[in-house]
């Protein structure tokens, strides 16, 4: 019988890292988080958490706090430029799934989870960047860029799409650009003259572009609106993407395609009146789902975006990452309790999670395709017909009703 996992080194203090640390503690396992960035780093942007993700925030003890700083909503309305409904993206429902979706700043989620982890006595080491990892059958080591290193029973990479740990497990694999990049910005909500429009969750889809706007955070206090569009652009190297990201004037210029006749006044106002420094970009990189997540000894693993980054079109990037955190911690708790073999127990976890995420990737791909431009009116009419026919809320219980405790190593 293997000795139990009693201390884990988590690389990455984004969203998955602190959720994993709290869930490990719930399972009786201590951990330390090593985060490359400083404590006050602002990750930017706004996100929706759907009921499956919110279950994890409840387990981590932060759901009530998040409710205070978020906007609850059930759908994003899809429309064409004539204002005709094309369907909706369902993100929650109290009646069907127990909770509405919650839209919040990404930094609110991250900071709330990190604060809760710290409150529970979990050590978080900032400004500590992992350079490499190594393992033996009984432990694993993180080597940092500052020349120091630490040993733990297990090292888990929650270090995002450009993970240092994923390539250790999959030396030939690189994140792949999906072909789509979002240009986003936040603006004060009162920039939108019509108060009803200012609180709409709306994605406008035309043959030559798509434009979404919605409240970005809470219903009270400092209120913002998020707006974005998804563009099809060529791939670049990492320096090329950094250049795009830092050229906020260029990003604002890209969004001026919506300042023309046909687009609603709200879109035209937002893209013209929002200062350039508020704009940012997000190229959607994906990580091959069928790469290895767990090393042969079971001492090194990845989860979250480091394992399976997916585009945001179905609002499930963080959702899948949070589910990973709970299920991995529960699995390790069971391995400890029952004295099971680490590598085979984690192999079962990996298999279970991949089957679920594969289905989510399919849904994400379908939603991404809706945002692709069409070449002419006939193709657009065909696309709109398909969108109207596709009912999003028929059966989402498989997605939003997921029980993180359902995976058992019995
Ligand atoms: C603008 C935007 C909007 C989004 N909207 C949604 C949404 O609506 N719904 C949704 O579900 N998802 C959304 N997502 C996706 C979601 O944010 C990600 O899926 C989620 O953040 C993944 O969490 P993570 O902790 O795995 O990775 P990350 O959040 O990327 O965190 C990784 C952490 O690891 C740290 N790190 C990296 N390398 C190292 C290293 N070598 N050593 C130590 N630390 C390291 C990083 O600094 C970072 O803090 C959105 C993402 C963006 C960018």
From TrEMBL:
| UniProt-annotated stretches for the region Disordered | 363-389
For this protein, what is any one GO molecular function term? Answer: monooxygenase activity
The answer, when asked if Transferase is one of the entry's keywords, is: no
| Pfam families in alphabetical order | FAD_binding_3
Q: Which residues constitute the signal peptide according to the record?
A: none
Q: Any idea which UniProt keywords this protein has?
A: FAD, Flavoprotein, Monooxygenase, Oxidoreductase
The record ties this protein, via InterPro entries, to:
FAD-bd, FAD-dep_Monooxygenase_BioMet, FAD/NAD-bd_sf
Q: Which residues form the FAD-binding domain?
A: 7-364
Q: Which family does it belong to?
A: Belongs to the paxM FAD-dependent monooxygenase family.
Can you name this protein? Answer: FAD-binding domain-containing protein
